[in-house]
Amino acid sequence: xxxxxxxxxxxPGREYAQxxxxxxxxxxxxxxxxxxxxxxxxxxFDAAVARWDPAPGQTCWLAKPLTFMNESGRxxxxxxxxxxxxxxxxxxxYDDCGxxxxxxxxxxxxxPGGHNGVASLIEHLGDGFVRYRIGVGPKHPxxxxxxxxxxxxxxxxxxxxxxxxxxxxxQGLELLLARGVDQAMxxxxxxxx
Length: 193
Fold this sequence. Notes:
Helices cover 36% and strands 21% of the residues.
């Protein structure tokens, strides 16, 4: 099953722009820039959408839900129903506190891991969508509230890592679209030496 919808999770509004929780948005916006795609607001879906034709006969929609993170599934679910896409044709790009900053991991099942955006996707799509998880590291200090950590801005050190890895994330998404989930997992889930 090829991926036909890539949703970058995040929160709308300038105050959230450079926060850890908006990493999904940052990555899909960079992908759209790289391929010269234009975003269009789609009020019917509560999302901004860009059309991408990566290969002849292949169309992929990039989406930024304009609901807040906790309601991401509402926007992605509406897009999936409109385009008649099963969960397996959808990839969600999002920040993951369970992975070291900068690390990339692709999975297809599992719990939301405390991520409200993922919980919302499971609620609206069921399980089986591709999870394109990008590490933002464990919260620091550890007693900090998780919400405060993910809604906080990247530290200067984290920002350097994310900027250095951005091309890697985009190539990973391109690989996922071109070669499918299994090959992308085999290549991208290896820990960097």
